[in-house]
Amino acid sequence: MSKKIGSGTYVMSSPVKITCFDAVVGQKEHDGPLGKYFNNWSDDEYFGQDSFEKAETYIQKEAINRVIEKSGFSAKDIDFVFAGDLLNQCAGSNFCVRDIAVQFFGLYGACSTMAEAMILASMVIDGGFAERSIALTSSHFCSAERQFRFPLEYGAQRPPAAQWTVTGAGCVLLERETDKPSVSIEKVTPGAVVDMSVSDLANMGAAMAPAAALTLKRYFDDTVTSPADYDLIVTGDLGLVGSDLLRELLLRDNISLGSNYNDCGVMIYDTAVQDVHSGGSGCGCSASVLCGYILPEMLKKTYRNVLFVTTGALMSPTSSLQGESIPGIAHLVNLKVQAE
Amino acid sequence: MSKKIGSGTYVMSSPVKITCFDAVVGQKEHDGPLGKYFNNWSDDEYFGQDSFEKAETYIQKEAINRVIEKSGFSAKDIDFVFAGDLLNQCAGSNFCVRDIAVQFFGLYGACSTMAEAMILASMVIDGGFAERSIALTSSHFCSAERQFRFPLEYGAQRPPAAQWTVTGAGCVLLERETDKPSVSIEKVTPGAVVDMSVSDLANMGAAMAPAAALTLKRYFDDTVTSPADYDLIVTGDLGLVGSDLLRELLLRDNISLGSNYNDCGVMIYDTAVQDVHSGGSGCGCSASVLCGYILPEMLKKTYRNVLFVTTGALMSPTSSLQGESIPGIAHLVNLKVQAE
Asked: CB B106 to CB A8 under 8 A?
C-alpha cells in the first residue's frame, strides 16, 4: 500500500492534475524578463490598500479569486486551501482566506511554501480526502523588508549576495479527475531541514543550497533518473550565488546540472540591470514564476517534464540576533504533461 | 473513494493509531490541577538554555526525543514530522527538527496547530504515504509575552479576559498498523477561518469561540451525533470567557454542551488562585493537556470517545496595530479507544 519509493519520494496512485493557476505581481516583476507572461500586475505597490501587509493579502485574494473564477467552480466546491506566506503569523494567508469559507491548513515553509502546499494538496487528493484543493502563497518586497531587514526609509545598502523579495502571489487548483488541459503531479519529495552553519542573512542562497542538493540527490536516487531526463529543473529562489553553489554541491555527488537548470530568483529579474544583486526571493517568487510562466509553457508543451524545487530559509530575525545559523529546506514536485 | 461525510468531516479508511506521546511543561503548569500527570517539567523557565526562544526549541526537542525513544523506533523510521508553534517564522519547530533528519512539514495554525498537525499526519498515513508520522507543537509564556505583548520587565497589567500562555510542548506518534496499546483517530473535521469582528487582543477566547462553534456544529451534523455521545469534548484554549461563549453559541443551534465539556485552558491552571485570569492558551496548552492527561487517561479507559478541538487566533501584532479584527479557526479530531 505504501506509495514511498527509495528514501523519501512519493508516487501518486494516479496523477493529481493542476487545472487552473494564476499569478499576480508588482511593477518590478512585470519589468523583468518574464514580464510578458504576467497578465495581472500593478504599478502601485500598495495595490490600492492602506498598508503593505494588506496589499499582500490583496494579491493572494486576487490570485485565488481568479483561479476559482477560471475553474468554473465556486469556493464551496473546493475541499481545502493550503496556504502560507512570510509575514509573522502568516497574516497574509489568514486574512486572505477569512472571506472564503473553505477548510484551511496554514503552512509555514518560508520560501519553500509553494511546493510544500502542492505536496500536501496532492497527498490529500490522492489519499481520497479531497476532490480538489488549492495551493497558494505570496510575498511582498515592502512588507518583507520592514519585517526582516530595515524600514525602506532607511535606504539600507544591500551586499552583493543579497536577494530581492518578489512582490507576487501564485495560486494553483489541484484536482483528482479532469478532462481539462492539465499538468500532472506524479511524484513528490518533501524536504528535511539541513543546517550547514551558514549565518549570513545577506546570503540566504548559500544557506538553502545544501537543502536543495539533498532533496534533488534523494529524488534522483529514488527515481533512478538524472538531470538529463528533465526539460527543466528549477529551484525556488537560490539566486545567482545559491544556484552556483547547488551545481557545485551536486557535482560532488557526480550529479551534473546542465543548461536545463535554472532558478526562479534568477529568471524573474534581469539581475544585471534591475539592481537586485543575487536575484529574487520570497514565497511569491517561485509561486509567480510557476503560475505565470512554467505551467502555461507546459500546457504549450514547451516543457513536458519539470522538477519544481522550492527552497526555504527557516531562520527568524530573533534567532539570528541570538547567534543561530540558518536552517534550510527544499520541497520537490515533479510536473508532467502527457504526450499527445 | 471519497472519505468525506456531510459538509466537511473525513473518515479514515482504517483508524490511525496514536501509540506514543509525551509532554514537557514548566513549573506553573506542574503547579496546576493536572500537575501530577506531567512527569517532565522544570522550575527553570530557561530550561538550561540562554534565551526563552531556545528554551522553547529545547522543550520541543525533549518531547520528540522522548516519544521516539519510547516508541522503540529511531528517527529514520519516522516518515514525516508535522510541527509548528507561535514564534515568528515558527522558529521553535524549525530549530527543533534541524537535528532530526526527517522530512518536515512546517505548519502555522496558532493555538490550533496540534489538531491541524494530527489531521494532516492522519491523512497522509491513511492515504498510503506514511507508516508513521509525528505531530508536535509548543508554546512558552516568556517568548510569547515579549513577541505578542510586552517585555516581562514592564510588569504590564492583564485584563480579566486575558489568557496565560502555557509553557509546554506535546508530541504524538501516529502509526498505521500496531499491536501496541493505542488511541485511534477515526474522524477529523478541519476548520475554516471565521472572523466575527472581535478585535480585543485581551479576549482571544471570544475571537476563537465562533470558529469552535462552527467546527463542532459541522461535526455533529456530519456524523449525526450529539454532545451526549462523547465522554469528553475538550476545546484547545478558549479559556473561561470563550468557553462560556461557545456554550451560548451552540445553544442557539440547539446543541447543548453538558458537564462532559471542558477546555484545556481551564483545565491546566487553577484559575481562581494561579492569577491566570481567563485560563491558559498557546499551542502548548492543548498539546500538553492532550499528551499529559487525555491520552494516558484514554489508555486507562477513563475516557473512550473524545472530541479534541484546538482553536487558533490568527491575527498578528502588525495586523492588530493596523486595525484588523481577529480571524479564528478550530480543527477537530475524534479520539477513540477500542472496547475490550
From this structure: no
A314 interfacial to chain B (CB closer than 8 Å): yes
pLDDT at A189: 98
Of A95, A102, A108, nearest to B89 by CB-CB distance is A108
A244-277 pLDDT, tens digit per residue, is 999 999 999 999 999 999 999 999 999 999 999 9
pLDDT tens column, A146-155: 999 999 999 9
C-alpha A136: how far from chain center: 9
- Picking from B51, B98, B193, the nearest residue to A104 by CB comes out as B193
Residue B2 has pLDDT above 80, yes or no: no
Long-range contacts from B314-317, C-beta under 8 angstroms, 24+ separation = B314/A89, B314/A90, B314/A91, B314/A94, B314/A95, B314/A98, B314/A106, B314/B109, B314/B110, B314/B193, B315/A89, B315/A91, B315/A94, B315/B201, B315/B207, B316/A87, B316/A88, B316/A89, B316/A91, B317/A88, B317/A89, B317/B147, B317/B148
- Complex ipTM tops 0.95: yes
pLDDT tens-digit profile of A212-249? 999 999 999 999 999 999 999 999 999 999 999 999 99
Do B316 and A89 count as a contact with CB atoms less than 8 A apart? yes
Over residues B119-161, the pLDDT tens digits come to 999 999 999 999 999 999 999 999 999 999 999 999 989 899 9
Predicted confidence (pLDDT) per residue in A74-102, tens digit: 999 999 999 999 999 999 999 999 989 99
Q: What element of type H or E holds B25?
A: strand B9-26
Bridge partners of residue A250, in order along the sequence: none
Q: In angstroms, what separates the C-alpha of A288 from chain B's closest C-alpha?
A: 21
At A305, which helix (H) or strand (E)?
A: strand A305-313
Is A16 strand, coil or helix? strand
Question: By CA distance, what is B193's nearest residue in A?
Answer: A98
Contact state of A80 with B2 under an 8 Å Cβ cutoff = no
Q: Could you say which residues from 114 to 153 on chain A have a Cβ atom under 8 Å away from some Cβ of chain B?
A: 116, 119-120, 123-124, 126-131, 147
B315 in contact with A at a CB cutoff of 8 Å?
Answer: yes
The beta-carbon neighbor of A314 closest among B94, B109, B192 is B94
